[in-house]
Amino acid sequence: MSIRIGILTSGGDCPGLNAAIRGVARAAYQALDAEIVGIRAGYRGLIDGDYQIMQQSQFSGLLTMGGTILGTSRTPFANMRVVEEDNVDKVYAMKMNYKAMKLDCLVTLGGNGTHKTANLLRQEGLNVIGLPKTIDNDIFGTDFTFGFHTAVGIATDVIDRIHTTAASHDRCMIVEIMGNKAGWLTLYAGMAGGADVILLPEIPYQIEKIAKVISDRAKLNKHFTIIAAAEGAMSVEEAGMKRKEREAARAQREFRNVSQHIAANLESLIGVECRSVIPGHMQRGGSPCAYDRVLSTQFGVHAAELIREGRFGLTVALRNGVITENKLEDVAGVPKPVDPDDQIVRAARRINISFGD
Ligand code: F6P
């Protein structure tokens, strides 16, 4: 009996989405009499009934391709039950379209927000399997998400390239790395790129402590400093505020971006020449690295295996190096911040990397 599998990608794109889609499809075609329905632009496509029946040939050439062939969108979980101006009951529409597409199950590739909606659809009786993707690596219950290692490589390359200018010009260079709530990407890239200071949302900084690193280095005849700062890095004062209050305070200051803000503060505090570099969405772009190609494929294959076994309401995961799964209800939306006592943080401190605390 044939089985109809819907696939969608939701939230920010990242390297490895296409490789994961390919993994699901190839394994499903091999193990099952599968028909695959590609849903356009994330949950938006499920709400609007925007989809196409995929041909096997459409899953060729995807392993190395960045972005997502299905397109993606951010459809906030908080609004899923809210009927907006378009007067559409989104949850009802998704259930109706799932039926209209004659799906037996739905595979959702995404981050924490995507998982929350997947869990909502599970509660509504749909057969759902989630695959964890994000360059932030902030999904609870999996050692790594796909996309993360590629982004680490890109951000590390930026720091490497900044090093030469910092050293040649005796400058302090601040590289702002993606990650609003979680600092994993900054931690790994900062460590790999040999940053002198790493600033994470999880470890509030004091500007005076960063300034001291710069002057201590000068005493050792090192006249440049590299700072890797997560976009969500916050000062001790900011950490003491509620989110809305913090956002309002940031809106008031001269520079909203953390790297520019810190650069301006350091310049006025100790007169050192500072520059900020923001690689931004480049960190999500391009072809997945070898690690992510393998992980995405493994995740996709495991999803197809779960479908074959008729096991739903799960997310695929890597735990202690083993490909396995979690219950959606246990992990949906649960964040995975950097533990300030993480072994990488401890190792960094032991080689005199400062966290500005
Ligand atoms: O979740 C991935 C991510 O790249 C974060 O690191 C970043 O804060 C956010 O997405 C940016 O989102 P957008 O692409 O919508 O600006």
Summarize the structure.
The chain has 357 residues and is of the alpha/beta class. The protein is built from 13 helices and eleven strands.
Which helices and strands occur, and which strands form pairs?
Blueprint: E1 3-9, H1 17-31, E2 34-39, H2 43-48, E3 51-53, H3 90-100, E4 105-110, H4 112-123, E5 128-132, H5 148-169, E6 172-177, H6 184-192, E7 197-199, H7 207-219, E8 225-230, H8 236-239, H9 243-252, H10 258-270, E9 274-277, H11 290-309, E10 314-319, E11 322-327, H12 328-331, H13 343-350
Parallel strand pairs: 1-2, 1-4, 4-5, 5-10, 6-8, 6-9, 7-8
Antiparallel strand pairs: 2-3, 10-11
The structure holds 6-O-phosphono-beta-D-fructofuranose.
Description:
By secondary structure, this protein is of the alpha/beta class. It has 2 domains: about 190 residues, 3-Layer(aba) Sandwich (Rossmann fold); about 140 residues, Phosphofructokinase domain (Rossmann fold). Helices cover about 40% and strands about 15% of the residues. The strands form 2 sheets. Strands 3-2-1-4-5-10-11 form a 7-stranded mixed β-sheet, sandwiched between helices. It has a 4-stranded parallel β-sheet with strand order 7-8-6-9, sandwiched between helices. The longest helix has 22 residues. The N and C termini lie far apart (about 60 Å). The relative contact order is 0.17. The site of 6-O-phosphono-beta-D-fructofuranose (F6P) has 11 residues, from loops.
